[in-house]
Amino acid sequence: MSKPIVAIVGRPNVGKSTFFNKIAGKRISIVEDKPGVTRDRIYTDVEWLNRHFTLIDTGGIEPNSKDVIISQMRRQAEIAIETAHVIVFMVDGKEGITTADEEIASMLRKTNKPIIFVVNKVDTNNLPDTFYDFYTLGMGEPIPISSVNGLNLGDLLDEIISKFPETCEDEYEEDVIKVAVIGKPNVGKSSLINTILGEERVIVSDIAGTTRDAIDTPFEFNEDKYVFIDTAGIRRKSRIYENIERYSVIRALTAIERSDVCLLVIDATVGVTEQDKKIAGYAHEAGKASIIIINKWDLVEKNNHTFNEYKRDIRNQLSFMSYAPILFVSAKTKQRVHKILEYIKYVSNQHSLRISTGALNDVISEAILLNQPPSDKGKRLKIYYATQVSVKPPRIVLFVNDKELAHFSYIRYLENQIRQNFVFEGTPIVIECREKKRDF
């Protein structure tokens, strides 16, 4: 089940980012102990009344501008609109209707998507006289809000979730392994897919950013069914002038959300960059099975130590993804490309692995004997029992006396013990602590 996507659109400076940050700050718990996970997002996962969805912050749309960057922003916002299940159209209640608002309203009316019309910067319950002018846009009943002081945000969130489709199920059957091919521009993602498929199914170009949208390519191999989701390369923030390609990023993030397995493609001639770490962080945080693909390996000058040194550097740079297997390939020469499907199937199975409660508790009990849980001010962490509650990714709940005593380093120790016994190669493991008062 995919999460619904909600895009916030409107001309620049109407308060879209303020609204986005207000919702994200109120509803999202940032876990500081996850290295490599980016914080400068333009999307966020939101929960409201037990409904989960992804909120997208768009760049402002200037419909008639000839400025290259503005026109790119407009195109990226259009991609976001195409991707979204619900659109929040925001205008400025202090400034009143502008020509740009009218142009955007005209564009949105053609989408046939649920649209929620929001008038921002209404800071009191007394509506300004200009508020009623917004009815002339023909976008339905406007909802007055203030992103700054939180006025009517609850009502708006109620309206958003009321517009969600009854299901956001994927269009593919359950036995299909969905693979998102992710990475920076020009690392060879499309070439890699073409080599695996043995045919030119995706446009290949040496110009970074050729692949603008996510492209699905279903195929079968040895009676197994796959779908490759090729995505636009994700660029470093300073290279995209804040907004130019942010909706290619949304396509990639949406592809990650839809996928079972992520192939993180890295250019062997460049090595692991900060942007590679961020992209890996997206897949890691989404709980997806992952394989690190080092492409263009044929272009690297080698000696007897090159392979081991390169692999060691990857493990150091992507230490939070130590579970992911690494494969050195060349889409051009087809070196080791035939192994990719084998790896995909393997990590997909690991991603779906379920272990019995009895076996899990045996491992946890032994781990506790080897290394006592931490204590604070005379109070020691007690782990009563553990159980696996779900798969994709494997999610394990520890019932404990006090969550505050469950230090990150000890949870990581328990994760390592679990991996030593059950492998879980290629997949993150989510370990959650819940407090339980012992009644015996």
TrEMBL record:
<dbReference type="InterPro" id="IPR016484">
    <property type="entry name" value="GTPase_Der"/>
</dbReference>
<comment type="subunit">
    <text>Associates with the 50S ribosomal subunit.</text>
</comment>
<dbReference type="GO" id="GO:0043022">
    <property type="term" value="F:ribosome binding"/>
</dbReference>
<feature type="binding site">
    <location>
        <begin position="10"/>
        <end position="17"/>
    </location>
    <ligand>
        <name>GTP 1</name>
    </ligand>
</feature>
<keyword id="KW-0547">Nucleotide-binding</keyword>
<dbReference type="InterPro" id="IPR032859">
    <property type="entry name" value="KH_dom-like"/>
</dbReference>
<dbReference type="InterPro" id="IPR006073">
    <property type="entry name" value="GTP-bd"/>
</dbReference>
<dbReference type="InterPro" id="IPR027417">
    <property type="entry name" value="P-loop_NTPase"/>
</dbReference>
<dbReference type="InterPro" id="IPR005225">
    <property type="entry name" value="Small_GTP-bd"/>
</dbReference>
<comment type="function">
    <text>GTPase that plays an essential role in the late steps of ribosome biogenesis.</text>
</comment>
<comment type="similarity">
    <text>Belongs to the TRAFAC class TrmE-Era-EngA-EngB-Septin-like GTPase superfamily. EngA (Der) GTPase family.</text>
</comment>
<protein>
    <recommendedName>
        <fullName>GTPase Der</fullName>
    </recommendedName>
</protein>
<feature type="domain" description="EngA-type G">
    <location>
        <begin position="177"/>
        <end position="352"/>
    </location>
</feature>
<dbReference type="InterPro" id="IPR031166">
    <property type="entry name" value="G_ENGA"/>
</dbReference>
<feature type="domain" description="EngA-type G">
    <location>
        <begin position="4"/>
        <end position="168"/>
    </location>
</feature>
<dbReference type="Pfam" id="PF01926">
    <property type="entry name" value="MMR_HSR1"/>
</dbReference>
<feature type="binding site">
    <location>
        <begin position="295"/>
        <end position="298"/>
    </location>
    <ligand>
        <name>GTP 2</name>
    </ligand>
</feature>
<keyword id="KW-0342">GTP-binding</keyword>
<feature type="binding site">
    <location>
        <begin position="57"/>
        <end position="61"/>
    </location>
    <ligand>
        <name>GTP 1</name>
    </ligand>
</feature>
<keyword id="KW-0677">Repeat</keyword>
<dbReference type="GO" id="GO:0042254">
    <property type="term" value="P:ribosome biogenesis"/>
</dbReference>
<feature type="binding site">
    <location>
        <begin position="120"/>
        <end position="123"/>
    </location>
    <ligand>
        <name>GTP 1</name>
    </ligand>
</feature>
<feature type="binding site">
    <location>
        <begin position="183"/>
        <end position="190"/>
    </location>
    <ligand>
        <name>GTP 2</name>
    </ligand>
</feature>
<dbReference type="InterPro" id="IPR015946">
    <property type="entry name" value="KH_dom-like_a/b"/>
</dbReference>
<dbReference type="Pfam" id="PF14714">
    <property type="entry name" value="KH_dom-like"/>
</dbReference>
<dbReference type="GO" id="GO:0005525">
    <property type="term" value="F:GTP binding"/>
</dbReference>
<keyword id="KW-0690">Ribosome biogenesis</keyword>
<feature type="binding site">
    <location>
        <begin position="230"/>
        <end position="234"/>
    </location>
    <ligand>
        <name>GTP 2</name>
    </ligand>
</feature>
